[in-house]
Amino acid sequence: MKFKRVLLKLSGEALMGDRQYGIDPKRLADYAAEIKKIVDKGVEVAIVIGGGNIFRGLAGASNGMDRVQGDHMGMLATVINGLALQGALEDSGMQTRLLTAIKMEEIAEPFIKRRAVRHLEKGRVVIFGAGTGNPYFTTDTAAVLRAVEIQADVILKGTRVDGVYTADPEKDKNAVKFDEITFKDVMKKGLKIMDMTAFTLSEENKLPIIIFDMNKEDNLNKIISGENIGTLVDI
Questions:
Q1: Please, are residues 164 and 193 in contact by the beta-carbon 8 Å criterion?
Q2: E-assigned strands of 130-214?
Q3: C-alpha 126 chain-centroid distance
């Protein structure tokens, strides 16, 4: 087994499936099944999920809404997604805990680093909601921050493309995929993987990132087994 403790980053849009917005129960069930495969192997799994399928603070700001207000709405959207994912994971037989950066004690535990680590050690899947709890920070930044705090071995960024390319593979047929690339080369080539705050935090803490296609069956399991799936970004 290549990794003992991982942080899985999922976008809110990933939960939409084929819908225009909201949450697709089938996609949730598929993700739960993939996560269960690695939990059953003894991998400690933490998850950060975005909220873009429900509300995106930046989009609200561009339509004249106060940015701080919009970002707080986005944080609440991540908690809705976290609750949905928690339900799907528990339906699949896993034990979970939802921890939030904003206190909402009736539905989730507040984020406390030691508590999060203890849950992981007990084999529970830990979902981190409400981003960092601060406006102007993305859920990518929240994912790296939480991964550093819980001392995860790697960040697994699940997307709908199977890695990092020289150009957008959905727009450019000649785009070439990288199997491995350094943080410095990503910067040099101006490739878009995460926002700069998240990316820099990951580089400073020597925390590798694997970008992979979460929608392809067994990809997550193969990564844990040591197969070269997606693109590895490392020092």
A1: yes
A2: 154-159, 164-165, 177-178, 180-182, 209-213
A3: 12
